[in-house]
Amino acid sequence: MLNKKDCSPNYFYKMVQNYKEAQLLFAAIELDIFTYLGEFKDYKAVALETGYNERNLKFFLNSLVAIGLIEKKGDIYRNTPIVDRYLNKEREVYLGGYIVFREKMTQLLNVVERVKKGPIDYVVKNNKGVEVYDFYKLAKLSIKEMYTGRVQSLLEISKSLFIKDKALKILDLGGGSGTLAIEFIKNYPDSTGVIFEHPSVSRLPKELVKEMEFEDRIKVLSGDFTIDDIGKDYDFIIASGVLDFAKDSLSHMVKKLYDALNVSGYLYIVSHDVNEEHTAPKQSIVGWLSSHLDGLDILLDKNSITNALETGGFVEIERDNIQGIMDNLQGEIYIKG
């Protein structure tokens, strides 16, 4: 945020600089530079392997050094540790494809023209995210990203709520790839689960469930969770980034969750934490701006979600009352009131 005491234009210059550095990051990922620099390597050798122009490659690598993505000794270069961990295709948790896709998915093209002319009529009329975004590809590319925090958070929560040998029935609502449900089932061998996803996405969790040989323990249901039956008798319902998009049917959706959950069950909610003014957090506001300019209007503020849950009979559990809960819990836990 701009400091009121700062009358210098450097604030704006810094924003322009950050934009240029982001462009370098995306270019390096698309050029697959970081996969070649797991160890120190001469730029000429990289040029020979890739076929890239030797002269321009050296200038490009020096720019990546300047912004802290790689390091240099003489004429040899190597990834920094964090870059090597997430942007080298040879590493276990490669996120390069996911990062590039998210950038293209949310990029702000032709903003001036779109602000002047307004949204797309059919997008406004239907107000369906699946008509704007490729959620299947997003779900597929985000699988590895989920292991950088979301999976760990869920499993830490489950340890605090359930004993290992308890037979549980869980629902991963709008679960994308179904990774959260799959990891939960792995850790609770007597449990069963349901992954509910839109038909345009559901073939992905079906593939993963089959690959894991969990067909007898996890069912994948296809449909629109705001309209269709989501099942019942669940001990644990995961609703990660789901209620944000139930704007036109929030009360109805909360009732469905309440009816689907067992008396002693838990509801795990993760939202985009949007404030009532729709001005924060900036990652959510800016990240969804492109879809809003297209005509979508589906992102709910957190207070609306919280109020709907409380009105619908849910009670949030204070974090201090969840024994052993991790400090970076990404959502909230609710029970029936």
From TrEMBL:
Residue ranges of every copy of the O-methyltransferase C-terminal domain listed in the record: 168-283
Keywords linked to the UniProt accession: Methyltransferase, S-adenosyl-L-methionine, Transferase
GO MF assignments: O-methyltransferase activity; protein dimerization activity
Domain O-methyltransferase dimerisation: 16-88
InterPro entries xref list: COMT-like (IPR016461), COMT_C (IPR001077), COMT_dimerisation (IPR012967), SAM-dependent_MTases_sf (IPR029063), WH-like_DNA-bd_sf (IPR036388), WH_DNA-bd_sf (IPR036390)
Gene Ontology biological-process entries: methylation
Signal peptide: none
PROSITE patterns from the UniProt entry: SAM_OMT_II
PANTHER family reported for this sequence: O-METHYLTRANSFERASE CICE (PTHR43712:SF2), PUTATIVE (AFU_ORTHOLOGUE AFUA_4G14580)-RELATED (PTHR43712)
Name of the protein in its database record: 16S RNA G1207 methylase RsmC
Origin species: Maledivibacter halophilus
